[in-house]
Structures are given as C-alpha cells and as structure tokens.
Amino acid sequence: MSESEPDIPASAAPSEPSPELVAYQVSAETMPLRVAPRQRDWMERTPDRYAYRCLPLVIANQQGWELLSPVDFEAEWDGGDDKTSIRLRFDGAASALVQPHFGSGILTFATGYLFRTSPGYNLWCKGPANAPKDAIAPLEGVIETDWAPYPFTMNWKFTRARQVIGFERGEPIASVVPMPRGDLARFRASVRPIGLAPELERQYSAWRESRSRFISDLDDPESQARAQQWQRAYMLGRDADGTEFPEHESKLNLRGFTPWPPPRC
User: Fold this and answer.
1) Structure confidence by residue, pLDDT tens digits, 10-56
2) Measuring CA to CA, which residue among 145, 176, 196, 190 is closest to residue 68?
3) How many domains does the chain have?
4) Residues 115 and 242 in one domain
5) Consecutive H or E run containing 136
6) In the chain, N or C: fewer CB atoms in 10 Å?
7) How far apart are CA 131 and CA 69, in angstroms?
C-alpha cells in the first residue's frame, strides 16, 4: 500500500451488493409468493411433532420462496397422451394459470411472472420441499434467469390415472431457489477410506459409540436417554467433542418479495 492510500479497516471496506431475485409481473393474474415456511402439515401430525427433530429436513423446508395456487380446483387424468386427457374442475372461476398444456399426463402452472436474478445466478424451480402429494409428482427445472427474457412454467406429472387430485387455494405448487451457475462443476468428488482422516475417524467413532449406547438405553425407563428421547448435537451445531460450529444454521431468515412501489418509511 502506498503512503497516499488510507489503511481502511476491513469492517469499513465496501461490501458487495446483495444478489437480487426479481419477479416481473407479465400477466394480470399472478401467483401469490411467500418465503418457504418451516412447517409441513404431515410433520405437525407426527407424534409429539417429532419430525421437526430432523434439522436437515426443517432447513430444506425453508430453502427459497414458494408460489401458491391461486384457486381451489381438482384435476384428473384418464391415462391418455392428449391434452384433453386431463380434466380440470374449478371451485369457482377458472384460472388461466392452470392448464393441461403439454399432454402426456402433465399439469402445467403458469406463474404470471418473468423472474430475473443477478448475473451468474440460475433459478432452480422445483416442487415444495418435503410436501409429498399422492398420484402426482412435481417436475424440476433450472433456468438461466440472469439473461433469458422468457417466463417458465411449473409442471406436475400424474403418476396414476383416474385419480382425482385436489389443489387448494394458497397451497404451494412450486419453490424457486437461486443457485450460482457453475458451482457444481467446480467440485472435485472422490471416495476415500475414513482412515485417511484420523481426526474425523475419531469423532465418527465417538459418535457411533454414543449413538449405540443411547439407542440401547432407550429400553430402560429410568435412563437419561429415555427422558431425553433424542440426541441434539447436530441440532445445536456441536461436533462429537462438544465444539460448536459458529456458522451453524438452525433456521433461515429469508426476506419476502417487496411489492412495487416499495412502501415508504
């Protein structure tokens, strides 16, 4: 650094702007948007809501933003390949956003938006995480939304014919997750014996022994394991030695879509 250049503390250095995700409205009717929530109806119904003890499941629930069905309707596929093989029955006025556009048992949702991301980001459009639906499955797509001037659709594929499928108004039908383009191709994937990482092997062995004792102790009504019911190390972001990982995430705090014009302070 030359004498004429000030020594700027790291905390004062200009930070990079936050990447953006913009939903441009391209039709009069659009799908409601929301931050993906942690709750799932089926998880709420598990005994003592134990499904929420699985942190990877809960974090996956919260990845991205969801698009919601604008109407209540039912769909049924007769097994054919023609577009007319899917019949739609709306509870009220029909929505132009819901159509059997492609045939082959594919139900199509238009979003009403053209999505735009910051340079270098794709948009992964998929079904809502951990939200299974009988007899129909969401299809997924990755779109280069930093340059493409084209909207995309969300599609669901029937997996069983002659089954009436209901979608409720406000039910999530898609989630969108920005992802840096090219990141996966930079990974070097390999398989190695765990003995090549002695410290990791030690911690794994300690966890395995602790886990075996815990499961065995669950049969003892007087044991601490029985009272505790489940081990919380990963939930708390702690390794086998009890060291906490400072960047551990137990929940996500995504920002919702800001309406236009933005509200005044």
Assistant:
1) 444 457 889 999 999 999 999 999 999 999 999 999 999 999 999 99
2) 176
3) 2
4) no
5) strand 136-138
6) C
7) 14
